[in-house]
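Customer escalation, tier 2.

The customer says the design service returned an amino acid string that "doesn't look like it belongs to this structure." They asked us to rerun it and document both sides in this ticket. The original structure tokens are below, unchanged.
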């Protein structure tokens, strides 16, 4: 059951009698899509700054305090929310909750911490993206083709250009505007007593002063024409291609889940009968990350490396044929057995993933932040209920796609096996 404190904080506690640990996940309904233009990367930077110290846990003491309690912690910035999570022995969770409440109510931001964390974020992005031959391919390119709004086109988690200009005033305003109690969800999963834990959360988080949250940013996007873009880059280990297509609103599970099942079927087909022009093919509804942790709009993405002896245009044609074959009237229309099997895989993957208390708490907090259903067994059952007709309709809808071809800086045959 989800409850709400007087100041707007959402609370959900799920007891688990089979474990002696527990996880606290706090989701803030602010992600990279909430960043203002010319402040790209602020949500990610702010995630880092929330570990820089608070009135009750001065700079440098948060990690040692959690470790002394026997816990571990992490955080992630997503398109539509930022999630902070801690896992610790169940008997330590009351103290974890109080520590988390302190940094969300009394954070301490300093110029030194800001300078340090801008550098840390820049280094993280360089290690994860800049130094890799394919960088952010194909997500950045596809987002720019599929979307017109800045909120949807940019990826703040991989952006650093605007951050050196950030000031303490910018940071304090971001906290005041975006981290209001009404945007917070506190989820606890594990070996805890529900009523006691709710009481501790209420005691710790009720002092946060309610304030009116900023109105949600407009994310709606008009349909855009299909386009193909070709980039040339030196030093590529292989050429690559990708295709992106808008999908139904994730809030509409009836239309959205069949698209996820379709992606699973296509991935299985590609593994069993690899297209001749492609290798390392990956297919998913993950343009903006976790398909069950995102708002509309998002997209279906298929990407792969160009096979030896093929060229990028041939590889793209192979990718398009793979999808076209699954449509109504296609060369290889979807069958009920393969669709049901794919739905069962997704349902089982969802259920087994939630065996981990940390994953369960993060998923709960995220879904509450999005205003999305949190009955995971029901969602798993809906995956298993998708039939061939629903999946074919999803394939029929994957028509107005945008393609990206990443090619060598000078035309030449070949790629990789």
């Amino acid at each position: 059951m989800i409850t709400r404190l007087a100041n707007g904080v959402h609370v959900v506690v799920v007891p688990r009698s089979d474990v002696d640990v527990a996880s606290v996940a706090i989701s803030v309904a602010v992600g990279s899509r909430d960043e203002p233009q010319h402040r790209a990367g602020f949500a990610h930077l702010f995630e880092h700054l929330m570990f820089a110290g608070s009135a009750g846990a001065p700079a440098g003491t948060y990690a040692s305090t959690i470790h002394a309690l026997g816990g571990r912690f992490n955080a992630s910035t997503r398109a539509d929310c930022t999630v902070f999570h801690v896992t610790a022995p169940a008997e330590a969770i009351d103290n974890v909750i109080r520590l988390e409440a302190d940094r969300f109510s009394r954070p301490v931001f300093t110029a030194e911490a800001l300078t340090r964390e801008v550098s840390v974020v820049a280094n993280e992005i360089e290690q994860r993206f800049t130094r890799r031959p394919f960088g952010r391919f194909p997500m950045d390119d596809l987002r720019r083709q599929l979307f017109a709004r800045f909120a949807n086109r940019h990826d703040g988690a991989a952006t650093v250009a605007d951050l050196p200009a950030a000031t303490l005033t910018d940071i304090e305003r971001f906290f005041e505007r975006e981290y209001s109690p009404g945007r917070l969800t506190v989820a606890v999963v594990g070996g805890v007593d529900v009523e006691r834990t709710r009481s501790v959360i209420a005691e710790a988080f009720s002092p946060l002063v309610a304030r009116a949250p900023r109105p949600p940013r407009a994310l709606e996007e008009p349909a855009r024409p299909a386009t193909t873009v070709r980039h040339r880059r030196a030093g590529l280990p292989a050429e690559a291609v990708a295709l992106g297509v808008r999908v139904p609103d994730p809030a509409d599970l009836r239309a959205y889940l069949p698209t996820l099942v379709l992606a699973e079927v296509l991935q299985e087909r590609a593994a069993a009968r690899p297209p001749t022009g492609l290798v390392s093919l990956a297919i998913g509804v993950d343009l903006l990350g976790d398909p069950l942790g995102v708002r509309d709009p998002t997209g279906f993405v298929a990407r792969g490396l160009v096979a030896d002896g093929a060229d990028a245009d041939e590889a793209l044609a192979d990718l398009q044929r793979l999808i076209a074959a699954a449509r109504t009237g296609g060369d290889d229309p979807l069958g009920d057995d393969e669709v049901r099997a794919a739905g069962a895989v997704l349902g089982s993957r969802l259920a087994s993933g939630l065996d981990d208390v940390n994953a369960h708490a993060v998923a709960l907090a995220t879904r509450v932040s999005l205003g999305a259903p949190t009955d995971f067994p029901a969602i798993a059952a809906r995956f298993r209920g998708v039939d061939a007709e629903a999946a074919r309709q999803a394939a029929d809808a994957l028509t107005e796609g945008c393609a990206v071809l990443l090619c060598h800086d000078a035309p030449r045959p070949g790629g990789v096996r």
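Tier 2 assessment: The sequence is consistent with the input. The chain has two domains: 2-205, 228-408. The first strand starts at residue 2 and ends at 4. Sent an explanation to the customer and offered a walkthrough call.
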